[in-house]
Every structure is written in structure tokens, then in C-alpha cells.
């Protein structure tokens, strides 16, 4: 039997059983037969706050006037761009926003470019367009998305922008401007690049770079795209998916510590010789080994989970771990990826967004590199089936200490409005509130009118834009303006936010694992580059604390291998933490304009520190 969808016609073999395909009825039957997983509830954490998070659209009042040009029409290139990066590029403690932009195919063939945009945070709820001065308006002819990392350890966050065609590495000069150092660094990568993420996979104190690729098409192939076929969906024609097209493989670049990188994709085991269609990318230590593993969401083909073997090599364990395909054994149209310890058991689980008729998938981490698809029993499966999912973030919007889940959606063709099936072409975001028992509740219609607006969304990123302790969200939409969602809170819950700086570890502390203990609740998170869909979240680590009025302990497992403990912190504060020194003023972890690039110190900090309570309230 074949599914009536160009990207769902995937036959799977189950032992000697006949070929079958994923269908929503089969999924619902499986849900009925699957036991609901309910973890032990922690004392004092069993009741939901009566006040729900409220998200307000402040795009217009923020002064952001960006518009993404490309609109899905009939070509695959127009469907999948639109990443957004949150980056404190001037290190003033306030998040700035970089929007990627891409043209229509007709514009590209005519040699016309469109401008991406960098907006500086004015500290008052507004933003100023600084694109021209920063020199980041035209990274390439067809930008896709990007990631943030400090590749030269000078303390200034750099940007890597992925493209159809040559990618761009923007070196942050520390004076409000960026320089294109792509060719010198050796990371141009002319294939069709999508997701990217920086991570120090070998623990040498310098971040490396992974880049996923989609279809094996190059800028010179654009003229061939008008000959692409359309495929039938419920009686209407939409752009065909990537099946049958050649995949491009993936790239891992090792940092040489001198401003250059070496492509080590093949010897490290992550080159993707099968040519799957990579999109979302994230580094995370799924096995608590102290080494970052790598997850790649692949469109229409099985996803990758690369286990870091600790010797410069990775072993692909997607099928073995249960994260390659759905629980029913079907490869899905996977796009975005989010990571969190949503059960508060110390293990990072994975959410992957998928195509319509494929539920967004929640892979629950069982430990020992084993995951279980719990999408339906956790309450996500049914409500996400009608949508085409893209960007996704785990974020504690109500500061109760339990990460909630936010997803953005939008179809690939306006023709779907003619079939009377699914959620339509423009689709609203979805917000699921963590119920603290292994399940989520859809509160999309209870969190404000803004997220009930149908959009054509792609990228999404979270960060505290106004530094009020409530985490906000930025959405990039195709064919129109973005949406900046201010989290208005209202629940009076407490929080802390930590900004880390490596010394022996890489400067931005990418890969650092942070544990926060308040009473009987232990929360775990990481500093991560990449993630969501072609986007970058806030590199500061935020923890909601509920009604706890004191943080008993913060424990940081640095990428260098050292562990640092800080006790007795006041709540509702931003803290700067320097590897080996504990809490310090922010001037000690942020670079100064005159600071020359320097590598990490080779002197090992103390293996463990216990620091008395220090209260350093960030002043802005």
C-alpha cells in the first residue's frame, strides 16, 4: 500500500510482513497500546502553576522591519531557508538578532541578491538595523541559516552562515564589524549546506564545526530547477520532496588552532556516504560521557546519532539507539531538533519536527544510548499530525523548573489550501506545557493571540531579549516579517541565568554541562551551538526555579574535564562564571576591544571548587 503523499510514500519492511506505510490510524492504534510513562514526581513539584505563560507579539514596536523575500512556489530551494541567530555580538549582555534572507529562484537567476539583517539590541525593547556597518548583509547568494561560536577563542562570538553555494564564516572584529574569513579558514563548502553547529568534540579547547548538507546541487545548477517535477497531493500539485535526488553528504571541520580548519569528515566517520538529506544539527552529551555526541535530523531518510568514541572518531548508532526512525519504523521528513532533560532525570531527550501526517517525534532517553518514541503517550503526536514542523525549542516559559516545548510550522506549497485537509498553508505555532509527569498539554490557544496567528514559519530561537528573567522567542517567517514574542510571565516564579567563560575549555564554554539544585529538584542543561531549525539560541543557560528562594548548588562540568561547584546563590540574578574562578564580574569574562586573540590556557584549573555565596546582580 502507498501513502498518497510524495514525501510519505516510504515502504518499510517489518520482518517477513508485507510492506506497509505510516498512517495516522496505525499510529493511534499504537498509542492505545502503549503504556503511559509516568516518572516519580518530586516532592513539592506536582502541582501546575495556575498562571500560564503569555506571549506578546512586539515585532512592530521593536523597530524590526526585516522581511524575508523567498516564498515557496514550485521549487525545492524556496521551501527550506529562513534561519535566525541570537547573538550578543558586542558582548554588552543584551541579545542581538541576525535574520538570514534568500531570494526567489527568478531573482537568483537574474543575479539579484537580497539582504540579510543584523539588529542591535537598544536595551529598551527596541532594535536598530546595523547591517551595513557590521558588513553582514550579503553572506552569499542564497543564505539558509547558521550557528554561533568563537572559533579563534578571542571572546567575540563569530557567525557561520550556511548557503546554497559558498558558506561564510564571519569573524567578529570586536568593534561592531565582521570580516569574511571563509577562504582563509578553509570552510567555504560549496555544497547545499543547511544546519550547522560548533562543538569541541575532541576536548582540546577549540571549537570544531559540523555542517549538514541537503541535496547535491550547487549554485551552478540553479538554471536546471525549473524543470523539477511537481507531485500530486490529494488532487493538487506541490513541489516534490528530495527522494530520488542525490544527497550531498556532511562535513566535520577540525579546528587547527591557528584560524584554519581541516576537513576530517571521512576519518571521523560522519561524512554520510549514503547522501541522506541533512537539516537540523545539534551537539549534546546524550550518554553523560563528558564528550559531545552529534545528532542530525534528515529529511525523508533515517536520522543520524553519532556517538563520540573519544578518539577523534564517531560511531553512528541511529537505528541501534532508536532515534533514526519513528517508533513504527518509518523514516520521516525531519527538519528541526531540540534537546532537553524534560523529565528531570539527568538525561537529554530529543524532539524532532516532521512533515504533515507525521507527528513531531519525542525520543525519550532511557540511558545507555537507548531511546523510545513516546510522541503519542507524551501528548505531542495527535496535535502535531496536521502540521509541517520546522523550528523547535525546549524552553521553560513559566519558570517552574520544567522545560516546555515550542514549535513553529508552515507548509511547503500554497496549493494545499485547495485540498481541505491538514492545517493549511499558513500554520500557527504550537506551545506544549510540561506537566511534570512525562506528558505535555497543548496550551497554544491559552497563551495569547499572537501564537494563534497562521504563519509561514521556518527558524525559531529562544533567549531573554529584555533581560527580565522571562525567556522570549524569535520566529523567522518566509514571505514576510519575523515575529518577536515577548514572554510577559506573570507567574512570579524565580530564576537564574548563567553566562559561562572557558579558560582551559573553549572560550564560550560550548558543551559545558550545568546542574542546578533547589531542594529536591535537580535541573540539567548544556551550552549549545546550533539546534532548532538552522538557528541559534541564547548561549546563556537559564533555569526557572519555581518558588524556590535560593539555589542550593550549581555544578558545572566543563568541556576540559574539570568540575566546579558553587553554593548558595540568590535568585532572580544573572551570574558570570569563569572556569576555575567561580562567580566573577562580567568584565572578567567578556573581552575588551583591545584584547588580542588568544588560545585557551594550558594550565589546568582546580578539579573542584566550592565557593561561598556571592551576589553579583548584573547592571544594565
Strand runs, count: 39
Number of helices: 8
Strand order of the largest sheet: 33-32-35-36-39
- Derived from helix and strand composition plus strand pairing, the structural class reads mainly beta
- What is the subunit arrangement here? single chain
Low-confidence runs: 1-46, 594-620
Tell me the major beta sheet. 5 strands, mixed
Instruction: Specify the overall morphology.
Output: globular
Secondary structure: helix percent:
under 10%
Structural features, described:
This protein has 620 residues and is mainly beta. 6% of the residues lie in helices and 32% in strands. The strands form 10 sheets. A 5-stranded mixed β-sheet has the order 33-32-35-36-39, with no helix packed on it. Strand 35 (551-557) and strand 36 (563-569) form a beta hairpin. It starts with 23 loop residues before the first helix and ends in a 9-residue tail after the last strand. 56% of the residues are buried. Mean pLDDT is 88; it is low at 1-46 and 594-620.
